[in-house]
Amino acid sequence: MLGLMAARQAGLDDPARLRRAERTRRVLSLELNKDRDVERIHGSGINTLDIEPIEGRYMLSGGSDGVIVLYDLENLSRKPSYTCKALFSVGRSHPDVHKFSVETVQWYPHDTGMFTSSSFDKTLKIWDTNTLQPADIFHFEGTVYSHHMSPVATKHCLIAVGTKSPKVQLCDLKSGSSSHILQGHRQEVLAVSWSPRHEYILATGSADGRVKLWDVRRASGCLSTLDQHNGEKSKASSETANTAHNGRVNGLCYTSDGLHLLTIGTDDRMRLWNSSTGENTLVNYGKVCNESRKGLKFAISCGCNPEFAFVPYGSTIAVYTIFTGELITMLRGHYSTVNCCVFQPHFQELYSGSKDCNILAWIPAPREPDSDDISEKSLPQQHLNPAYEDAWSSSDDEG
Fold this sequence. Notes:
Elements: H1 2-9, H2 15-28, E1 30-32, E2 36-38, E3 46-51, E4 58-63, E5 68-72, E6 82-84, E7 86-90, E8 102-107, E9 114-119, E10 123-128, E11 133-139, E12 144-149, E13 158-163, E14 168-172, E15 180-182, E16 189-194, E17 201-206, E18 211-215, E19 222-225, E20 249-254, E21 260-265, E22 269-274, E23 299-300, E24 308-313, E25 316-321, E26 327-332, E27 338-344, E28 349-354, E29 359-364
Parallel strand pairs: 2-6
Antiparallel strand pairs: 1-29, 3-4, 4-5, 5-7, 8-9, 9-10, 10-11, 12-13, 13-14, 14-15, 16-17, 17-18, 18-19, 20-21, 21-22, 23-24, 24-25, 25-26, 27-28, 28-29
Keywords: Chromosome, DNA damage, DNA repair, Nucleus, Phosphoprotein, Repeat, Ubl conjugation pathway, WD repeat
InterPro entries: Rad28/ERCC8/Ckn1/ATCSA-1, WD40/YVTN_repeat-like_dom_sf, WD40_PAC1, WD40_repeat_CS, WD40_repeat_dom_sf, WD40_rpt
GO cellular component, one term: Cul4A-RING E3 ubiquitin ligase complex
């Protein structure tokens, strides 16, 4: 690290290289933080978490009891041990609380004054953060499994919604309409994710084992259907041809640059795809245990080299390198099944929610002093050549 800092100071190295190295070190040293608690509000399992991208300070959580909680992650007490306090919650007594399990919460990408939530009660709600009142409510015919707003869109305000219907619903915040639909899946849509690179590109995963990429400007919509065999159907049965997984696809996540898409299915497999060509990169992650019957919320790091995936794995969180498939570590701390995790890119922190009703904070371990980072006190005192010593003294004893 000292070498990187010296090279940066001398102008011999790219400053971004030092940032990537330190971010990577911090992710590799993630551990359960015993000095930071997240206030326990939920009375049942936690299904979804989201940290707002503006400051990285406020976090939303949604639970199986329909409750939504907003937390302040900043340490206002300035004490070594502290609790992240809940600023408010949409509790069971709130008149507009979701009737059933909240499956997804998401901040409006450009402003903390608004957030969204969707639920098994067949609704998507748009909330005003300041008043805690719904600004709009979208109703659907079936259970809502997932929704997502584009993090980069400037020309549209569409929210993609995956429901029990095989049709992908697009809700327009400007008009309040949900009439736009994308047709192509054969079973319920469990996961949706907009590209962070192209504002009109959407990825969807379904219980039919298929992952589809859409350009929502096109009349036909569907750009491609991802094929785990990359078109080599000779060895594949007709049933598995043109499918991304041999089970339900219940998790999708783009890398931060939007160049790759990571998918997870109930066939206990995770696959990495080139998002522009639709090619399966054939990275082998081994068995990725996934017994969830609904959406699985996993996360990807940002600004590291290599990048990492944080995947709920039973009561633990598995950390993989994305491009090599190596299992780096298993984060253990929850007492029951982990449902979701979210990465905080500002400080390389991870938060996870579980059926045990707890939200845990995983924080980089403090840096150990380098072997060559020795304090001046431990160095022998060097005696200067008399020629370089001061010829005067400020001592009061000398006249």
